[in-house]
TrEMBL record:
<dbReference type="GO" id="GO:0034399">
    <property type="term" value="C:nuclear periphery"/>
</dbReference>
<dbReference type="GO" id="GO:0006364">
    <property type="term" value="P:rRNA processing"/>
</dbReference>
<comment type="similarity">
    <text>Belongs to the EBP2 family.</text>
</comment>
<dbReference type="GO" id="GO:0005730">
    <property type="term" value="C:nucleolus"/>
</dbReference>
<keyword id="KW-0175">Coiled coil</keyword>
<dbReference type="InterPro" id="IPR008610">
    <property type="entry name" value="Ebp2"/>
</dbReference>
<feature type="compositionally biased region" description="Polar residues">
    <location>
        <begin position="214"/>
        <end position="226"/>
    </location>
</feature>
<dbReference type="GO" id="GO:0005694">
    <property type="term" value="C:chromosome"/>
</dbReference>
<keyword id="KW-0539">Nucleus</keyword>
<comment type="function">
    <text>Required for the processing of the 27S pre-rRNA.</text>
</comment>
<dbReference type="GO" id="GO:0030687">
    <property type="term" value="C:preribosome, large subunit precursor"/>
</dbReference>
<feature type="coiled-coil region">
    <location>
        <begin position="136"/>
        <end position="163"/>
    </location>
</feature>
<protein>
    <submittedName>
        <fullName>EBNA1 binding protein 2</fullName>
    </submittedName>
</protein>
<keyword id="KW-0690">Ribosome biogenesis</keyword>
<feature type="compositionally biased region" description="Basic residues">
    <location>
        <begin position="227"/>
        <end position="240"/>
    </location>
</feature>
<feature type="compositionally biased region" description="Basic residues">
    <location>
        <begin position="279"/>
        <end position="301"/>
    </location>
</feature>
<dbReference type="Pfam" id="PF05890">
    <property type="entry name" value="Ebp2"/>
</dbReference>
């Protein structure tokens, strides 16, 4: 390595690298074995005997119920249903993900089928009892937080759906309203054009007036039919029965011509305070006058 550093230093300082290498080779600074050409990838050692020896060293001689290990060989009928096009049905292609995963699945399934009878023979329960209580991985408070979060998400989704429906209804309502306004403007424009033509003498027909009257009468009849068909509900009928049918309240106690002419309820004794047990107008003034009260005070002194 020191020779290489010296060669590199001389090549970078003095001249070309070829001359420097030749001078170093002449001096004997370059030795064979520094640069080795590798042909292909090196093979990894497979020391089967050493692996078996290591396995025997750390293996514990325990009963099978303590180990619960099941070792199976290669399954022969794993890929018969999925490799019909291949020539060798017993071999599993390691590059085929589906075949490889199916072989793992079938091997695990065969291991379970072999281990269950051995466990039952040893009287080891393999099913969880119905009254088995297992501690949850998360606490009740954490689960309550999760439930509240899910509930808030659901409420937010419902609110957004309602808002979408309201926006759609508003858009539809605006569309209908615009269509109605456009139809009214069109009808009004047509009627004005017909009136102008009639005024100028271009037309002697008044059909537009008949159409307007028929349309207004039809609208009135339709609204009346709707009112008669719909009618008030039960709550409105009960209030009408209890409080009357409403109507005009202001000026309801004003006199009319019929009430003014009707004097059947007039009583002169009551009106002029001349009934029995009443002493006329003076009987109402029970308090004495000011001078009388002053005289009464002076007499008392």
């Amino acid at each position: 390595p020191d020779a290489n550093r010296s060669v590199q230093g001389t090549s970078s300082n003095n001249g070309s690298p070829n001359t420097d290498l030749q001078e170093a080779f002449a001096k004997g600074a370059l030795k064979p074995g520094l640069n080795v050409v590798l042909e292909g990838r090196p093979k990894q050692p497979n020391d089967v005997e050493g692996l078996k020896q290591c396995l025997a060293e750390f293996r514990q001689q325990l009963a099978w119920v303590e180990r619960l290990d099941v070792t199976l060989g290669q399954l022969t009928n794993v890929v018969e249903s999925v490799s019909q096009n291949t020539t060798d049905k017993d071999a599993v292609d390691p590059e085929n993900d589906f075949q490889r995963e199916m072989s793992f699945y079938r091997q695990a399934q065969a291991a379970v089928l072999e281990a269950l009878p051995r466990l039952r023979k040893l009287k080891v329960p393999t099913r969880r009892p119905d009254d088995y209580f297992a501690e949850m991985a998360k606490s009740d408070q954490q689960m309550q937080k999760i439930r509240q979060k899910l509930k808030s998400k659901q409420e937010a989704m419902e609110k957004s759906e309602k808002a979408k429906q309201l926006r759609a209804m508003r858009k539809y309502g605006k569309k209908v309203q615009i269509e109605i306004l456009q139809r009214r403007q069109k009808e009004k424009k047509n009627m004005l054009n017909a009136v102008k033509k009639y005024q100028k003498g271009l037309s002697d027909k008044l059909d537009f007036l008949d159409e307007e009257q028929t349309s207004s009468q039809g609208n009135k009849k339709g609204s009346a039919n709707q009112r008669t068909k719909k009618g008030p509900n039960a709550k409105r009928r009960y209030k009408n029965q209890k409080f009357g049918f409403g109507g005009k309240k202001k000026g309801s106690k004003w006199n009319t011509k019929d009430s003014f002419d009707d004097v059947s309820g007039f009583k002169s004794n009551v009106a002029h305070n001349k009934g029995p047990g009443k002493g006329g107008k003076k009987a109402l003034n029970k308090r004495p006058g000011k001078r009388t009260r002053q005289k009464m005070k002076s007499r008392a002194r």
